[in-house]
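Data availability (excerpt). All sequences and predicted token strings are deposited with the supplementary files. A representative entry, Class I SAM-dependent methyltransferase, is shown inline so that the format can be inspected without opening the archive.
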Amino acid sequence: MMLTCPLCASSDTEHFHRDVRRDYHRCRHCSLVFVPPAQRLGPAEERAVYDQHENSPDDPGYRRFLSRLFDPLRERLRPGARGLDFGSGPGPTLSVMFEEAGHPMAIYDPFYALDTRVLERSYDFITATEVVEHLFAPGRELARLVDRLPSGGWLGLMTKRVTDPSAFARWHYLLDPTHVVFFSEATFVWLADHLDMRVEFPAADVALLQRR
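Structure token line:
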């Protein structure tokens, strides 16, 4: 079955993998791997999974995890740069870390911080940690975020990356039923070119994209 890629909208896709719960297709154009729309969770089921998360700014382990994006991005920001944490979750933490470092922050989350007014403002940088793998329409959502950035602005993304088919079949990332799209390094390179950005990979699960 040929499906349309939710990132680049190409119909040049192929079946990539199947496990006991879902199918996974890969786009031949941008290399995104994605779950068919019919196999996604509904909103209530998705929210129930997120409600189980126990992330908190008081958890030093969670702060260390987020530092993989926080540290390299902070090094690239001017003092006082303003940011948005997109998909902040039930326990916003990355925004707290940036505010502690002197960067005013806004947060947005479709389940826990649904204030769409923040998506109408401009920011010097936008972060999304462990978010893009949940997006049903990543092409539209990421383009909307980049539109909020000026020339030289940063988009910081944290998500595990696809490597090869054999590793994919054993990948723990597939166990989360809310994970529906999976990026590889090639996908991020395509995305950067498509959005007129440059991309860096400071960690195995971090991509920093800067608007030209």
